[in-house]
Amino acid sequence: IVIKCKAAVAWERGKPLCIEDVDVAPPKVHEVRIKIIATGVCHTDWEYLYETEKGMKFRPFPLVLGHEAAGVVESVGPEVTKFSPGDKVIPLFLPQCGECKRCQCPKTNHCRKNWENTQMGVLADGTSRISCKRQQVFQFLGVSSFSEYTVVPDTSLAKIRSDAPLDKVCLLGCGVSTGYGAAVNTAKVEKDSLCAVFGLGAVGLAAVMGCQVAGAKRIIGVDINPDKFEKAKAFGATECVNPRDHSKSIQEVLVAMTDGGVDYALECVGSPDVMSAALESTADAWGTCVIAGWTETEEMKVKVLKILMGRTLKGTYFGGEPKMSLPLDQINVAFGLLKSGKSIRTVINL
Ligand code: NAD
Ligand code: ZN
Ligand code: ZN
C-alpha cells in the first residue's frame, strides 16, 4: 500500500523547501521502504538547491533532498533477502552491490550499480517512489531522507546494530564517513605526521578526528570562521589558523609554521581556491593533498611545478576505500562527534 506522509519538497532550485503531503509507493523488486528517524543536513544538500549554477550540475526538480540518515525498515520488496521490517538501517548514496568490477576491486569504493539512474534521481526502473500532487518527485542520490518514508535499493542500505542511536549514527551516512575516511583511507595519514584540515564543518571535524586516530603529531585546523576552533580542538586539532588574520596567503602561513609544509592537507570546504592552497601547503617532496569538498563544474589551478616536485593530489568520495563497514568500527566516531557538541550538524528527527 501507498504510505502518505510528510516530506520537504524542493519544487525548484534556489527556493526554500516546502513541507508537503507526499505518497510513497511500496518497494519494488530489490527495494526497501524505510521510515526515516533522523537525517543530517549536509552542505551538499544545500549546494544542490542553491548552487546549481555555481559548482553543481543540474538535477531534476521537484526533488526531495537529504542523503545522511538513519531509519527503520518498514517493508521490503520481492527478492530482498538481507533486510526485514524492523531492522535499523543507514541508507547509502553510494551503493555496495558487492558484484560489480568496482566492488571487487580493493582500491575503490565506487560501486557502479544504479549509478546513472541515481544521478538522475530515480530508482532502477527509471521512476521514483515518491510523488506529490500526482507528480513524480525525484529522489536525491537515490535516497531522499527529508521525507518520513522513502524507498531505496537493497544495495544502498547498511544494517546497523539494534541498539544504535539513530539520531547520532545518521552522520555515518555522509559527513563523518567522508571526513574520517578522507584522512584514514585516502590520505593514509601516518603516525607523527603534520596535517592541515581546511574547513571545520562536520566533514572537516571528522577529518581532524581521523588524523588524530591515525596518530598525527600536529593537526592544524583552518577556517575563516573562528567560532569553529574550540570544537576543532576538542576533536583533536592541536592549533587553529584563520586565514583572515594573516596578510600572507594561508599556504605561506602553513609552510612557515611547519618549516616546509604539512605532510597531509585535507580540503573540506569545496572551494577551488582552497583546494589550490591546500595542495601548496604540503611539503614539496612528499606532501599529499586530499580533496573532500564538493564541486562538479569548477576547475582548480594546479601549478605543474607543485606536482613535479613530488606532491600527490587525490580526491575522495564517501571516504574512499575500503568499503564502509558499519557500525562497529566507526560507531565511536559518531559518539565522538556527539560528545563534542551538537551544532556541528543539525540532525532532524522525523
Ligand atoms: P560545512 O558548511 O559544515 O563546513 C564548511 C566549513 O568551511 C565552514 O566551517 C566554513 O566556515 C569553512 N570555510 C569556508 N570558506 C573557507 C575558506 N576559504 N577557508 C577555510 N575555511 C573555509 O560543510 P560540510 O557539510 O562539512 O561539507 C564540507 C564539504 O564537503 C562540502 O563541499 C560538501 O559538499 C563536501 N562533501 C563531500 C563529500 C564527498 O563524498 N567527497 C561528502 C559530503 C560532503
Ligand atoms: Zn553529504
Ligand atoms: Zn558494486
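^ nicotinamide-adenine-dinucleotide complex. Confidence is low (pLDDT under 50) at residues 324-332, 338-343. The CA atoms of residues 34 and 73 lie 4 Å apart.
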